[in-house]
Queue: 2 jobs
Job 1
Amino acid sequence: MRGKISDVITVACFLSVSYVLFFMNIIKPSDELSFSERRRLAQFPELSAGTIFSAEFMRGFDDYAADQMVYRNEWRRLKAAFDLGVFRKHDNNAIFVSGGMVFKTEYPLRESSVRRLCGIINYCDERFLSGQNVYYTLVPDKNYYLGDGDRLVMDYEALADLTREHLRDNIRYIDLFGALSLDCYYLTDSHWKQEKLGGVTAALSEGLGVDIPFDASDYAAKRYYPFYGVYYGQAALNVEPDEIIYLVNDVTENATVTSLEKPGKLFAVYDEAALEGMDSYNLFMLGPAAAVTVKNPAGENGRGLVIFRDSYASSLTPLLLEGYDTVTLIDLRYIRPDLLANAEIVGEYADFTDKDILFMFSATVFNNSDSVKSAQNEDFASPFAARSRID
Amino acid sequence: MLFSSIAFLFYFLPVVFAVYFALPKKFRNIALLVASLFFYAYGEPKYVVLLVFSSLMDYVVGMAIDKNRGTKKAKYALVCSVVVNLLILGFFKYSDFFIANVNALFRVNIPLLHIPLPLGISFYTFQTMSYTIDVYRNDAKAQKNPFDFAAYVSLFPQLVAGPIVRYQTIAEQMTGRRHTLDDFAKGVTRFVIGLGKKVLLANTLGELNATALSSSNQSVLMYWLAIVAFMLQIYFDFSGYSDMAIGLSWVFGFHILENFNYPFIAGSITEFWQRWHISMGTWFREYIYIPLGGNRVKKWKWARNIAVVWFCTGLWHGAAWNFIAWGLYFGVLLALEKLFFMGLLKRIPKVFRHIYTLLAITVSFVIFHLESVPGIIGHLKGMFGFGAVPLLNAESRYYLGSYKVVLLLAAVGATPLLKSLLRRAQGNAKLKTAVSALRPVFVTALLLVVTAYLVDSSFNPFLYFRF
């Protein structure tokens, strides 16, 4: 090819890419949400003299231009493919795929973060739970079961040791590490599968001293496909979506859920409308919520359980109704612990009398406990923190 | 505005190209000036006034020098220009550094000013000073057209991170430049290569550097990974920006000088500085070192000249003592080479010359990167196995494995290997045709991949903006 022809084609290609994307970006209406990334996308910033002189408009436009780029998901896929395929990196934005399962590297162990969450648990125990049966458990993330020597894996033993060292002596530990395996987790999501929680209910049953019978065959299995888990969008790779199986029987069908944030309404333990939403895992127990209580109207033993929890407890809770008449879930990522003393705000959700208390947090939350509110944090106006995930 | 942003690539640039090339030649400098001021204001809306002031002042001073050539008035005008430019630079860049040192020295507590550093101030003040000095020396004619002069000062391709374009280099091009297809094609090719160096290599190496440096599980390998990644990151960041600046300049018909020439293949520190940030080295040589007498003076004066130039070089890079130490470190090495080692270096095998140079450069980047003395010493000890750390561990093996291809590509890309292969291909008709045919494919593919990285990433400023 002669140099001049090469020049013409080079210039034509460059200008074509520039102008085609320019016009497509101009024409394309703004998207509000990115389903694959599970977040709101930046919108065209406010244009005023103030926002221009403060450069706020320009910063906003940069975010807008990147977020609203045409074919955003395809660009992200190309980037992931290049990172992993050409650069041969072990992960893309800390996400990697092994055996068709998507993982997010959780490394290293952040001792200060673990100590912080232990401090919050101790605060709750000391202030609200004296004389109660108080337990805690640590939900391992699926990296623990990966067994791939080339990966960076947190020291889970050290994590468990740290929690034992820093939590008050009266808070008894229930070990779940042996109750799970890799196939208990979704391929594209961080969470465990409800239908695989037999080992967990057995361990809790023993630890809490309550009979929680679990036999998957006692339930009807409802299915939803495709379930694109939280890592699916982050990975931006071609992996198979999951199927959500949720277990239904008379107890789960008749149980009623109330929510602190939606007073006066009754909900079911499974919100099937959420299956079509941004995060299908919100199917379970109304998804992210500051405090919810589920009641089993047919319950006869009078026992109640309060779980200070993260999202893992959502799919587990319907199964616990076999052992408890009521289960209350309190998520300290969305409500400050000191507010639990305020009856006007929390009402019966903070009634801990004669109930078993379980602190159930995943290793990921222990290791990234900034998301958990502490009592000292007084700088937000609403008693309920903004959701970290779109619900 | 960043070159490596969607806003620049797919909003600003298409509009500027369309307007610039649609206008008659006589209006193109005005178009460039408007585009450049918009480009600057996009990142620094308030400081655009400073840029305009600096341009106007030096335009007026240039005219005054020209009018009063050979008289004391011309000298006063030059002094005025230099002093005001240095005051501007000193106030915005060094005032807090000065105050902090006064506070420490005299145990007082003068509050810091916390003035945000205007983008590219180190570059454009040096450019405008070069103009007035060149006009005073009669190396360049005074620019009569204030818009053309302002367009030179604010020329957006090189405004915020250089190269430092001396006025005499492009004085004639301001009015008499040609726009050719060849320049356009070469320009966009160079621009996209620069983008690739910045976005694909520098940013990825930056991730490695940040990860390795912040690791709580250190090893000798990790210390080396951190600093090697940083060296290569700085090189690809800065030389990538220079490539983009040079490439865009070609598109607009300007031919500015090269800023990098594969510095990591140098066989001595003297040679390294002939290959690294050439425009800055040239500026200091032309406007400080030679006026002080250069090396044609007594030895103590020469030593003083070296010390002054390298103190200034360090200080130019940042208002902190580690930058000054970094500059003086090079001054000492250059003096030692000149006085004692150059003869020896020429006699020893090439491989040892390169090992010495790379090692000296690596140490310099530790000083450059780690701001505190304990940090620098700790890192150097760790690198050379004097810290109580293992040689390697699972974490360092993981990151070496994860970044090995990027490191390899960067290491090869920092040598002229590819350039020399392409040059050889020019001698073979078939290979030449193949290279010509592949160029548009390469440019398009690289642009698309860079775009993918930009869409995926968040805001990512150039490192050299802070200088």
Note: Chain B touches chain A through 58 residues (CB under 8 Å).
Job 2
Amino acid sequence: MTTGLRHLLWTAAAAAALLAVTYAIPPFRNYQLATAAAYLCATAGLTVLVGLSGQLSLGHGAVMAVGAYAVALSQNRFADAGLTGNGVLAASLALGVLAALVAGLIVGLAAARLRGPYLAGVTLAVAVALPAVTTVWAGVFHSDQGLSVYLEPPPAGLGYDFPLERWQAWLALAGALLVMLLLANLVRSRFGRSLRAVRDDEVAARLAGIDVARTQVLAFVVSAGCAGLGGGLMAVLTQSVSPGAYSLTLSLFLLMAVVVGGLGRLAGAVWGALLLVVLPDLTHTIVASLTLSPAAAQRLEGNLPLAVFGLTLIVVMIAAPGGISGVVRRLTPASPLRR
Amino acid sequence: MTLLQVDGLVVGYSAAPVLHGVDLTVPPATIVTVLGANGAGKTTLLRTLSGLLRPAEGGIRFDGRSLVGVPVERVVRLGLAHVPEGRGVVAELTVEENLRLGGVWRADRRDVRLAQDEVYELFPALAARRKHAGHQLSGGERQMLALGRALVARPRLLLLDEPSLGLAPRITGQIMALLRRLCDETGLAVLLVEQNVRSALSVADQGVVLSLGRVVAAADAAQLRDDAGLRHAYLGF
């Protein structure tokens, strides 16, 4: 069986299982599942960039914002023009990916000339500067307020009382599975080997005939496209976009998620995406169980996820440098998902 | 007929020149060895030919085409493969992946497979370690892999930097015999840099002696071997 076919079968199996899950869980859990799926698009792309090509990005939250805003603007334009139907949403998401690809190309071209801390600095600047764009062109982006995103109700064919959250979960999961399938094949392809070669030994890679700069730019573009889809899906889920939701904190969270999950592994990206949803939920529960003054509770809830995540990062790095997926790999005997 | 023609090559790291006008020709299906003491500029010469360094002056023509200013990854595609000293193997990739990397830019996938199988035939030790990562290999296996990776590109000229470094004499002998065979059977030309002068001269057709960045002798390998004065002055045996 070829690798591509095997990945396709795995994706189909995962889709079937997840479909069953969306029927079994209540709407709120479906919404969380959808959020994790949207995050997964971004973390999967980021783990390929950071783990395989060795380029650090502190700006993937901003790339998600590009996708999210592009989807918001195009969804609203389409609605204003009276265009409806599910093809429209697909077109909007495609435009979101396209916008992110362009952003990835621009950052990638700069990144190919930079290494280590300098690259981190440029991507950090992107993460910090991009929210300001929404204020500069406030007429289009509506500053801090952001935009609301028009989303049609689930298709009538699914039944009159079909929950919106389940529909959103389907959309996000479809996007995430698509990203995972594409990346799984990419990682195993010639391009994946070239990426790892460039990361490990640039001179050896060049002597083998690999165009290092082109490979690195391409990695940025692919990774940005995934993050753009994640951002676009996030806009569809929350039905709003605002700069606050795509701040530097999000970029750092994404990076921590892929490191804690297991850098360079798609399975690690799944763990990371789940953590991004579970940890804030967990801290919310903890804060709610404490009796605090409202002001203190608000402060704690705002900062506790970051603290918990940071702590998790430290513990994981000390106890298991391979991340969660590394631990899982060690505990399970030969799995067919292994590279 | 010449495959590689080097004229008046001047190369320097920042200010101080390392090569002061080196001339050199390599005909097809010939092994030319570059000899000389440490610091003579042998490695610099190879690094310049493959595009890792830019010459300050002088010309490099490969198959009638100028290579000056052509980036490394393009030079490989033209048919000039460089196996650097102790490098050229990606430690994190497996033997198999390293070999496939050698043909990553080639459109003819079937021939890449074929070339890969040929490498496994040439080096059975590598075939046994297909799934092992580069960093798990012994020095000799690593050298074989670096050589194999270069051969998968089906080069017409191979630049080899100290292939015998750190290897057992028996393995050095095997590699030298292999080079001779590839040269005779496939028409591969080799530019061989070696510290091990005896084994290099035993396999080469021609030799060039470098001293402090200048060519001090260029002749048939047999002539160099027999020239006692030259041997004492520059080659130390």
Note: The interface with chain B takes residues 190, 193-194, 196-197, 199-201, 203-212 of chain A (CB under 8 Å).
